[in-house]
Automatic annotation (TrEMBL):
<dbReference type="Pfam" id="PF03009">
    <property type="entry name" value="GDPD"/>
</dbReference>
<feature type="domain" description="GP-PDE">
    <location>
        <begin position="9"/>
        <end position="248"/>
    </location>
</feature>
<protein>
    <submittedName>
        <fullName>Glycerophosphoryl diester phosphodiesterase</fullName>
    </submittedName>
</protein>
<dbReference type="InterPro" id="IPR030395">
    <property type="entry name" value="GP_PDE_dom"/>
</dbReference>
<dbReference type="InterPro" id="IPR017946">
    <property type="entry name" value="PLC-like_Pdiesterase_TIM-brl"/>
</dbReference>
């Protein structure tokens, strides 16, 4: 089945512009936009009350002034957290963002979204997917959306909810594993997202020859990354996309 006609950007801002603003916040997405990025990678999870929020870790310890596990928080408590001060005083009071708030901002800015379904230990993947996918489909056109995950069950559930023409799915890998092809085929994947440090030329070639788009995370050293472009990588997810200026291959 055909996939959406996505114009993949060379660079996506990882967790928003996370080198310069608190990751996964509205401020980080605004910063990415201001830096000229057209797409962002963000992470999504459910709070304990089933509110989908943009957040990476299983707890709020590292990136806020709180300590709780996401599973133990409801939105009235989560919204009072300061998710900005840990990064810098100028971001004091920056809140955690709900998925809905983030989608409104992306719509306003006309940006694309590579949304990573984060299924942390002990959490229910189907509940996350069933909440997130309908909201995404309402908010963004297929050309500006990739839903990605390391979690095969989450991707399979997402594929049950939307066909390839409506929802591009990205399968996340550390290294390209032996079972990479079956992981992709079973969900009719659009793309493979690999850890750039573990990507081999051979793995990259196999993925590209099979017709999957190849993305790499999280590269912040354009010199070290230079030869991977020639292997067929189309898009790099970076904390600081501007560092690639002058290091990109011709389109
Ligand atoms: O989407 C790829 C990348 O974000 C996966 O790693 O831990 O930064 O979410 P992580
Ligand atoms: Mg991520």
């Amino acid at each position: 089945m055909p996939h959406p006609a996505i114009a993949l950007p060379r660079l996506m801002a990882h967790r928003g512009l996370s080198a310069h603003a608190p990751e996964n916040t509205l401020a980080a997405v605004r910063a990415a936009f201001e830096a000229g990025c057209t797409w962002v990678e963000l992470d999504v999870q459910l709070l304990g009350d089933a509110t989908p929020v943009i957040w990476h870790d299983a707890t709020v310890r590292r990136c806020s002034d709180g300590r709780a596990r996401l599973a133990d928080l409801d939105w009235p408590r989560a919204r009072r957290l300061d998710a900005g001060s840990w990064f810098g005083d100028r971001y004091r009071g920056e809140p955690m963002a709900t998925l809905r708030e983030m989608l409104e901002l992306l719509d306003e800015l006309g940006m694309g979204l590579n949304l990573e379904l984060k299924v942390t230990r002990g959490r229910n993947a189907a509940a996350l997917v069933d909440s997130v996918v309908p909201t995404l489909l309402d908010a963004l056109p297929p050309e500006r959306l990739i839903l990605s995950s390391f979690h095969d069950g989450a991707l399979a559930r997402a594929r049950e909810l939307a066909p390839p023409s409506r929802l591009a799915l990205g399968v996340l890998f550390e290294g390209i594993s032996r079972d990479w092809r079956s992981r992709c085929e079973v969900v009719d994947a659009y793309s493979v997202h690999a850890d750039w440090k573990r990507l081999s030329r051979r793995g990259a070639r196999a993925v590209c020859e099979a017709g999957y788009r190849l993305l790499c995370y999280t590269a912040n050293d354009p010199t070290a990354f230079a030869h991977q472009w020639a292997w067929g990588v189309e898009s790099v997810i970076s904390d600081d996309p501007a560092c690639f200026a002058g290091h990109l291959p011709d389109a």
